[in-house]
Design goal:
mainly alpha; two-stranded antiparallel sheet; binds iron/sulfur cluster
Length: about 350
């Protein structure tokens, strides 16, 4: 049960009547959409960055595939962000030995940036930066146009499904947990790890019928259930969800001014009962600000830091982008961004990719 005043009265009319007349009491209309517009701009920027990395990777592979006849394009470090398992192994090696692996160093620092975001700003990476999250949102919008709505399985199915991503994460942590320093260093320097991003690229370029079927099935499911991949299967999301319990910022509802309209809950893509919460603790909260934008009462639903200080969407956007740029920028400035794998080694490995 909500503990705010149930449909209080405003000058002799009920709250729903009041809201029909004054949909956003106390808020300038322009402000209402600001977090969403900002978030979409950040998402679009990051998607463009990923697209650019994709083009650079294509040029790099074209050079290797042409036996060096096409113009040389260097290996783009940003592509290593798509190797989270390799980055986790590098992180463990760093923690155990103090050595930063120079095979996919950018992947390690991208992982550190993402983990830092999870620790400080909840699962902001998922709803502000991750291209898969952005794609999931676009598919959900398509689903609303196709089917008129999206669906949420009942708790009896939703909870077991949500635990799947934690099981996948536990499996990876278990597999990595048994490796000591020499085993980690050996794997990270192995040809298999050196060409991991090249193999991933080829997996999608020459995708098998089975894999394509799985990708299409996930896409269709994402039009039916918002964030299907993120909510049920993504181990990265599971890791961030666990870290987000430590995050100092949290969506917070002021019970005294809440009119129990339920718009926040309706807007929440994660299905969180925001209108019943004092502070949102859920591991599914991605700090997307959709509930904040939907709340019609000024200063009632906000992202708040310790001490009750509100964090407006524009400040949050600067923090998300700033933290990501700061960590990856530190890697560039300290010489931990570009791989040590030489052009000659890449050329040789590209000719024998089938072996790994
Ligand atoms: S609680 Fe608010 S910020 Fe968190 S996922 Fe739901 S709508 Fe987004
Ligand atoms: S949208 Fe705002 S006023 Fe409505 S229930 Fe949520 S917190 Fe309360």
């Amino acid at each position: 049960m909500a503990d705010g005043p149930p449909f209080g009265r405003f000058g002799g009319i009920t709250a729903p009547q009041f809201l029909r007349q004054f949909p956003h009491p106390g808020r300038a209309p322009g402000l209402v959409r600001q977090p969403r517009t900002l978030r979409r701009a950040v998402q679009a920027g990051f998607l463009l960055l990923c697209g650019w990395i994709g083009v650079e990777f294509w040029l790099f592979m074209r050079w290797g595939g042409s036996l060096g006849r096409a113009a040389y394009a260097p290996h783009p470090p940003g592509a290593e962000g798509f190797l989270p398992i390799s980055a986790l192994l590098s992180l463990k090696l760093w923690a155990l030995t103090g050595v930063i692996s120079d095979i996919h160093p950018a992947g390690l620092f991208i992982l550190l940036a993402v983990l830092g975001l999870g620790l400080l700003l909840k699962k902001a990476f998922c709803s502000w930066l991750c291209p898969i999250g952005t794609l999931g949102e676009a598919l959900a919008r398509l689903g609303r146009q196709l089917w008129g709505r999206t669906f949420r399985p009942g708790p009896w199915l939703d909870y077991p499904f949500r635990s799947l991503k934690y099981l996948i994460l536990l499996f990876f942590l278990w597999a990595i947990g048994g490796m000591d320093g020499p085993a980690l260093a050996g794997f990270l320097r192995s040809p298999y790890n050196v060409v991991a991003d090249l193999k991933l690229y080829l997996f999608f370029v020459h995708i098998s019928a089975l894999a394509l079927g799985v990708v299409l099935a996930l896409a269709v499911l994402s039009t039916l259930v918002e964030g299907f991949w993120c909510r049920y299967l993504c181990p990265y999301g599971a890791l961030l969800g666990a870290l987000s319990f430590l995050s100092p910022v949290r969506i917070t509802r002021t019970r005294a001014s809440c009119i129990d309209c339920g718009k926040c809950t309706k807007a929440c893509p994660a299905g969180i009962q925001v209108h019943q919460a004092g502070r949102v603790w859920s591991d599914e909260c991605t700090a997307c600000y959709r509930c904040v934008a939907a709340c019609p009462v000024k200063a009632t639903l906000e992202m708040r830091a310790p001490g009750g200080r509100a964090v407006p969407g524009r400040v949050f956007a600067v923090l998300v982008v700033g933290l990501f740029v700061a960590v990856t920028g530190a890697a560039m400035l300290t010489g931990h961004w570009r791989t040590s794998v030489s052009r000659e080694e890449y050329f040789q490995r590209m000719q024998e990719l089938d072996r790994w």
